[in-house]
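Notes taken during the Thursday session

The instructor put the following on the board and asked us to keep it in front of us for the whole hour. The protein is Septum formation inhibitor Maf. We were told not to look anything up and to reason only from what is written here. First, the residues (183 in total):
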Amino acid sequence: MLILASSSSSRAKLLREENIEFKQIAFDYDENLNKNIPANLYVQNVVLEKEKQFLTVFEKDFLNETILFADSIVCTGNKILTKANDKNEAYEMLALQDGKSASILSAFLLVSAQKRVFSLSKTTLYFKKFDKNALSDYVENGLYQGKAGCIMHEGFHGKFILKQIGKSSTALGLDTQTLKAYL
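Then, after some discussion, the predicted structure tokens were revealed:
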């Protein structure tokens, strides 16, 4: 059985939708890493750091299991956007996306006794201008919380996407097609 080493409800939902049997182990990670590197390296470093932190606590509990570690970030230009800490930061992140584009980089690491698979995928979303009332409702109701770059592909942002290049599952936090190829 797959162990999802993540508290992400979006990733759990994606796995359920793909009929992948899994057990979710919620774990709080310290994701404060150096952001002064390219975004693709940053997200990969976060996944490797998650593996390290998880195994420090649980290594003996999951020796013979297949464990999935994953993370996603959002990029606008050269700026890496992780999760907003408060409403002001959410408004700042969303202003960078308003009428522009944002790329979601999603990385996963699949670890078992037989293999280590590392995957990096990207989806870019092009947005029309956000409706100011919808934007305010989104932030003031806290719907941005826990979302990389405050992006809610299946909710708020979905109404404003003009064009998408890449997979929706990547935008939601996990490239399930690639994952299924290695399970």
